[in-house]
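Ticket #4471: complex job returned nothing on first submit. Input attached below:
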Amino acid sequence: MANTANSRGGFGAWLLDPKRRGALLVTPALVILFVMNIFPLMWSFGLSFFNYKASSLKVPKFRGLSNYERVLTDDKVWERFQTTAIIVGSSVIVQLIIGFLLALMFAKAFPMRRIVLMLVLTPMMLSFVSVGVFFKLFYEPTFGIVSYVLNFFTEDHFVMLGSPAGAIAGIVIADAWMWSPFVMLLVLAGLVSVPKYLYEAAEIDRASAWRRFWTITFPYIRSLLLLAVLFRTIETFKLFDIVYIITEGGPGSSTETIAVFLYRNAFQFFKTSQSSALAYIVLFIVIVLTNLYLYAVNRRAEEVS
Amino acid sequence: MNKRSVISGLMGATVLTAGLGGAPAFSADITITMAAPDWPPTRFMKEHFDQTYTSPAGHTTTLDMDFIPWPSFYERVAASLTSGEQKYQMIVTDSQWLGAFVEGGYYMDLTDKIAADPELTTILQDLHPALVSAYSTYPHKTRAQLEAAGEVPAPGVSYYGFPQFPDTYVTFYRQDVFCDEGEMAAFQAKYGSNLPCSYEDWQDTDWSKWGQIGEFFQRAKGEMLAGEVLDDDFYGIAYQAGKGYDFSTMQANAFIWQQGGDIWDESKMPDSQAEGVVNSDVAVAAFDEYLSYLQYMPPVSQTGQMDIFVIQDLYMQGKVGAIIDWVGLGEPVLDPSASKVHDKSAFGPAPGSRKADGSIDRTGNIGGQPFVLTTWNSEDVVDEALNVVKWWLSPDTQLAAVANGGQSGRMSVMADPTYNDLRPWNRAHVEMIDWQKDVWHIPEFFELLTQQQEEFDKAITGQIGAKEALDTVAEFQQELLEDGGYIE
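Support reply: We reran it on our side without changes. The output follows.
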């Protein structure tokens, strides 16, 4: 067969032989994956065991696990993890609440529902940078809209980003504004999958609204909610753009997330090896969260089937 | 580096010479790619180069400016250099980056080139010594150290950069407000001193009066200002107090130096210390004074986000009476399409601290940028890049740059009788440049700066006091500098 192909079409025909076609189609993707992901990952993993600084031409020396030890014993790192946890926790809770309420609203028909739905979905389609700049301007105390509106009631300028709590709230609001629609979409998918006859049966049984929600609606959206929680936790854990633009980690370092801290160490201080070690610790955390996410996905698949 | 074009140009020239027996022996096509912040002084340089530059060596030279927005300028330049792509032949650089990129092997030591070239030596001799100290030397040498050497180039000193845009901060103020007779009389009645209206008045303005101006002009919407009812809140003063980059250090350093305090002095290492100097009583008092005037500034000052661009915006919107900002940001203020106060603005020297003899110390932190050459260029490209340096720093080009919103570092150009009239801030710039010093240049400068900015930001937002901020800064710097071998 190969000889026939060779004799008929030469190298091209040989290459496109059905036996090789699969490998041929996959190869470009594998090459790109290796060049863009796997090689840099392995390279940076290797760097994390040296004392390499990208700004220096000095030959790096092997340092074993000392970078990991240094990172894990650095109080600043733990402070940044705490800050990240506070922002992640607050933001995901707010997104869940707003997303859930929006889903309940859009699960019912009302005039102009599709247009309103489209508008509500718009924030998650915007770039992080745009959202960051919008909210930085919204919060600006001299001419920002938040201060302007509150000025009618307080007769004073509202300085939202002047305190650690206010700055964290500012970031959480921006992140929740952007991503609550994503939670809404997931929950809405669960809500519309609930068979109507179940509600009809519950109504005949005169079940209360809460009972209907708890025994009919919630089981259908439970795993989707879990998905939303995990997905948003992973994403918010890596939050960088919005924080960097709105507060630059301030006041002081009170909103500096682990991603911003990592960026500063890698690209401003050029502690390349040390920041690689920290990046791998962050990666480990994200992998754990991703596994939880995959577990939730599988569970949802089992429920559906 | 455009090696291919250089080689093909040389080959072409050789063939032409052999064939015709006449044309320049080494004429080549040379492209100089320069990393430059995207703003008027560099835009003008490109425009003027395309219109006027002729290579003295007979090359066909292209200046390919890579205009990079300010907020990402450092990251983009650093990423390019450390990636090894060797994209740039010249770079407009902040003076603080010299150590990091000289030690990294990216910036070219020009000392021998300057010493061997009388034209470059003449230029260096004519540059203001504050600029040579800040923009050119690494390891850093102070103006006093350079002047003590007595010759140019000074023996044992390495030179790297030439001024692309020497910047200083000056006072931008609203003449319609400060020269209003009613306001002047009210100010006189309240404080017993005059409201600064003319340039000479600003020469006699110290920080104490700056605070009085802030207090005096803090007006709410509906109140009167210079005979008109305000449709929004108005503030008298603003200066930089932002967390980003160096947007509080640059102003706070001025207070500290003027009052006799100091930052860690790299020119005296390894003997100079951080602890006891950075957090000395004088430095704490000076920083406290810097913080004390924030109460009179627009409320954004309470967020730690009042950077040089924010105060420029607020001023152009007519919400602030006087700001202290870089000359490089003056041009938009005079632009009728961007500024509500384009026809009401005047400029004066920045305030300073009054000394016992009644004179005012205006020591400030220098701004602006030098441009440098990179280390991977061929001799042809290096020589042509130095020709570009000579062209840029030639008196005609410098005067053209100044007339278009730039500044000159050459003392002979600043002494030109037409200089002060070319732009309205020139007189103040010439007065201020003599007072300039610079922050650190060592490779760890970004760590020093970022930590200091964080602590200053905590103080600016009222979370900690001046002493706690400077104690923390001093402790951090002492440890970092001892670890790095800069302090013994």
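The CA atoms of residues 32 and 38 of chain A lie 9 Å apart. Closing as resolved unless it happens again.
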